[in-house]
Structure formats: structure tokens, C-alpha cells
Amino acid sequence: MIVNPKQKKENLFFYNNLMFICAVFCLICFWTYYSVESQTIAKRSYSLDEGSLYGPIVVKKGQPKICKIRSSMYGDNTNIYFSGEVLDEDKDTLYEFGKDLWHESGYDSEGYWSESDRNMEAKLAFTEPGTYYIQFHTDENMMKNIGLEIVVKKGSGIPHLMMGMDLLIILYILFILMNKKWVCESLEKLNDALEEMSDD
Predict the structure, then answer these.
(1) Residue 155: what are its φ and ψ, rounded to 5°?
(2) pLDDT score of 1 more than 60
(3) Rounded Cα–Cα distance for residues 192 and 184 (Å)
(4) 150 by DSSP, 3-state: which?
(5) What's the CA gap between 174 and 23, in Å, rounded?
(6) 8 Å CB contact between 125 and 64
(7) Which DSSP state fits 60?
(8) pLDDT tens digits for 107-127?
(9) Distance linking the first and last C-alpha atoms of the chain
(10) Are 142 and 47 in contact (CB under 8 A)?
């Protein structure tokens, strides 16, 4: 779509209204995204045993749920592979996730040093109706060194976020097309300023 710089007033009125409508729907999409994502059903911190099950997470038709898992490793100079399995109602594995958590420290010619990657965050989306469980594991039975926080939220705001991003792109394109002359002049001024700086 190309907008003529000499477009008539009615065309300007049309495109201004179109931009206004897109902006309103864009704001609504972002607001509903944050609104849906903030509806917490359950939130709790755990200290689990090896092979512990979390659940059930019951998903009804048209009512998806999001499960956010945050884990932290305790202890120094250690390495733990922390993993989880998403199970169906028959306790069969649907998929797995996991991460190496570690901490190392010591002394060298420059003194004490410490490096670590202690945290993992996973975001699981349950969109299909059913009953789900999450089972947690560590290598070498190190679950006692893991702190866990599980937050279950109602719904998924991802479609709202994607729609909002699409509308934001449309708004940007419309703005560029309607202000093509001003954008070109601004870019020329910026280019001149950069050339003057490079000459100095």
C-alpha cells in the first residue's frame, strides 16, 4: 500500500482513523496479555525429594494453563543436572526439560574467583484438555540442594501478545508511509551529522 504525499484530506482522515483504531486495539492486546498472564491459580515454594510429582494440573477445554518453574541450586563447588518430565494422566512421559546448574570457585594469581549458573526457569504451556503431572529429578540424588518455586497461571496470553506485536508493526508501517517526507528529511539530517562527526 502506497500513500500519495499529496493525498486529499479525506485520505488523511481515513489513515489517521485507521492508525487510531490500530493503536487502541494494540493497547487492548497488550493489556489483555498482562491481565491473563497475571491470574495466578497457585504459587508455592518446595523442597522436594528425588522423583517427586507435582500435580495434578487439570486443563479443561478452552481454559489453558501456564506453569512457571524456577529452580535454584545451593552449595559451592558442585554441579547438578536438574530435570523435569511432563507426564500425562497415565504417568507416561510427554516431554522433558532440564539444565546443568553449577558453581565453581578457587584461588589463582589474581586472588579469589567464583563463577556459577545456579538458576533455571522453565515456562510450560498446557493447552490441550487433560490431567498432567511434573516429575523432578537430579543426578546423584542431589534434590536436597535444589530450591523450587512453581507458579500456575490461568490461560495463555501469547495470542494476545502476538496480535499486539502485529498491530504495532502495522502502526509503524502506516506512520512511515504517512510521514515519508519527514522521515527522509530526518534521515538526511542524521546522515549529515554523522558525516560531520566522521570528518572531525
Answers:
(1) 80, 175
(2) no
(3) 12
(4) strand
(5) 11
(6) yes
(7) B
(8) 988 889 999 999 999 999 898
(9) 41
(10) no
